[in-house]
Amino acid sequence: VPSFLWVITFFYIPLIAIIGRSFLVRNQVSLEHYTSFAALSYLSVIKRSLFLALGTSMVCLLIAYPVAYFVARYVSRKWKSLFLFFIMLPFSVNLLIQAYSWFFVLAPSGIINSVLLSVGIIREPLYLLNTPGAVYLGMVYCYVPFMLMPLYSSLEKIDIRFIEASLDLGAGWYYTLSHVVLPLSMQGIITGFFLVFIPVFGEFVVPALLGGGKQLFVGSLISYYFLTTRNMALGSAFTCLSSGILLVVAYVIYWCLQRYNRHGG
Asked: CA–CA separation, 82 vs 93, rounded Å?
């Protein structure tokens, strides 16, 4: 009962309030706020956020999967706790501090430019900050632990005898990975993917700091409506619209992953 009341109070009631506020125009029910977002500029913001979320999730998966597999299969039980501690260590640091730390790496006087200048590879500092690449880099850095832990939990539960049987019966490593390991770890892939995909879609701290606010994302636009202009109605409408598109895209991705899993790769 306490957990049920908590969810009702802090999730469903605010959600219903946002949905209701998005339809109110001068105290009348109207779709005016939604029709105002039919412009291509607003749809491009949603598309840009979807590409950011999808790209970040895929890169996190490519980075986290081999690391999780290595820890689950090749690290002795005595050292696993130490590895997991270092994996979880970024969670103890505030997201704002994690994003700011990249200023010391990507700035014109940062580590990368200093090293390249000192060895003579470049003559002038590279402008790495306030670029889409910096945003993607910061996103991957901040969210890769969310992908790694579900993958580790899923890979550790796989019976090693399935892998050994596949190899003994003549299957190569690629076939074993795609038809044995990946299907058996699909639940961890799905969990980790959406733990990254959904929050990255609405992220506004990292794009604002590392992107310099040059490109608008969903989280940036929502925070602008709610915190800057104080236009709660437009902010609520855009929140509902972008969330609806996010749910549709997430369901399509989930369906594709489940179809892959049912066919065993």
From this structure: 18
Report, as an integer, the average pLDDT of 16-35. Answer: 88
Mind listing the pLDDT tens digit for each residue in 189-230?
999 999 999 999 999 989 988 988 788 999 999 999 999 999
Cβ neighbours of residue 200 closer than 8 Å, sequence gap 6 or more: 52, 53, 56, 57, 139, 143
- What type of residue is 126? L
Helix 232-262 to helix 13-22 angle (10° resolution) is 120
Termini Cα distance of the chain: 41
Mean per-residue pLDDT over the chain, rounded: 90
Segment 69-93 shows an average pLDDT of 85
Exposure on the CB side of residue 93, measured as CA atoms within 13 A = 16
One-letter amino acid identity for 239? T
C-alpha span between 137 and 143 (Å, rounded): 10
Spatial separation of the C-alpha atoms in residues 177 and 265, rounded to whole Å: 9
